[in-house]
Amino acid sequence: MVAVRTSPSGANWIKPPGPVAPGLRIGLLGGSFNPAHEGHLHISLVAMKRLGLDYVWWLVAPQNPLKPISDMAALSERVLGAREIARGQPRICVTDIEAALGTRYTVDTIGRLKRHFPQLRFVWLMGSDNLETFHRWRNWETLARRIPIAVVMRPGTTLAPLSARAAQFFAARRVRMARQLAETTPPALVILDARRNPASATEIRARGLGRRDCGMVE
After folding, report:
1. Phi first, then psi: what are they for 133, rounded to 5°?
2. Coil, strand or helix: which one is 30?
3. 45 CB-near residues (< 8 Å, 6+ apart)
4. Residues 129/217, Cβ–Cβ less than 8 Å
5. pLDDT of 162 higher than 90
6. CB 205: neighbour CB atoms within 10 A?
7. What gap in Å lies between CA 3 and CA 14, rounded to an integer?
8. Do 175 and 181 meet the contact criterion of CB atoms below 8 Å apart?
9. How far is the C-alpha of 75 from the C-alpha of 61, rounded, in Å?
10. What 3-state class would DSSP assign to 92?
11. Mean pLDDT score, 173-196
């Protein structure tokens, strides 16, 4: 668990998941990680290379508001699974920092992280499947104005950058040079396309239950 301490001023101090220094570029990949899989690793590695990120933090959510509670593994189990998948990747930091922050929605998490670590340059990472449902996130336009966003293309969602409801919002805010994203004032969006990884948490859980299902990265 992430350490939380009270400073002399009464404000909570949150232990960062990884190194903290002025100007470091940190990609944030949030989700249930129920379970973590190669798709999460693929998004992270593509983003690190194309965006010039120093680290990626995997934010393992206590409970995703858009996901059912019934089939959600315990937070500790999901954190351990994510660390196993990220093993051998020293620039990927797995954390349950949202539990320490007490935030449920991404927009609030980003606000808190920026207040706690103002010296870092954060970029939000997500797959193109999540771009399709981005308009369902709590205060998604406010979130887009708080942090630059990088979308890594996923199988089956080729048209997401054009057809997603949020695509119109970002139409005039697309960044051409990916390595400039971390320094770009939001709202800002870049689409990253590379070899697409089909791994899916929903499908992995379905195989574990002995049935077929097709889902998207979580």
Report:
1. -110, 10
2. strand
3. 89
4. yes
5. no
6. 17
7. 6
8. yes
9. 8
10. strand
11. 92
* pTM, full prediction: 0.84
User: What is the Cβ-side half-sphere exposure of residue 180, based on CA atoms within 13 angstroms?
Assistant: 8
DSSP category for residue 176: S
Q: Which candidate, 150, 163, 156, 167, places its Cα nearest to that of 197? A: 156
3-state DSSP percent of the chain in helix, strand and coil, to 5: 35, 20, 45
Q: How far apart are CA 154 and CA 179, in angstroms?
A: 20
> What ranges do the domains of the chain cover?
24-195+202-208
Provide CATH code, domain 24-195+202-208. 3.40.50.620
101-157 residue pLDDT tens = 999 999 999 999 999 999 999 999 998 888 888 999 999 999 999 999 999 987 756
Question: Of the candidates 216, 94, 78, which has an alpha carbon nearest to the alpha carbon of residue 157?
Answer: 216
Long-range residue pairs from 136-142, CB within 8 A, at least 24 positions apart, any chain: 136/66, 137/66, 137/105, 137/106, 137/107, 138/65, 138/105, 138/106, 138/107, 139/105, 139/107, 140/107, 140/166, 141/169, 142/107
